[in-house]
Amino acid sequence: MAHEVTVMTRQGCSSCVQAERDVERICAELGVPWRAEDVDSDREWQAEYGDRVPVILVDGAEHGYWKVEEDRLRAALA
Question: Which domain, by its residues, includes 35?
Fold first, then answer.
């Protein structure tokens, strides 16, 4: 099954920058597409994820937040 990772991020968030770097590296190694979305660009996203950015979504479902747990993410994408 092909997976997709989304990082819910926000401008000026240093944790978000680190999460994007981690996700980019892991996804590149595993050949998994990923993207970043600005949580403040959508009111529903802001309400859902705004207090926990960065939030990592795998296949549209919340996987984790605040930081990338590399072992867990790799297991979810295996």
Answer: 21-77
DSSP string computed for the chain:
----EEEEE-TT-HHHHHHHHHHHHHHHHHT--EEEEEGGGSHHHHHHHTTT-SEEEETTEEEEESS--HHHHHHHH-
> The sheet that has 55-58: what strands, in order across it?
34-38, 5-9, 55-58, 61-65
Q: What is the pTM of this model?
A: 0.94
Q: Is residue 32 part of a domain?
A: yes
> Tokens standing for 58?
């795998």
- Which tens digits make up the pLDDT trace of 16-60? 999 999 999 999 999 999 999 999 999 999 999 999 999 999 999
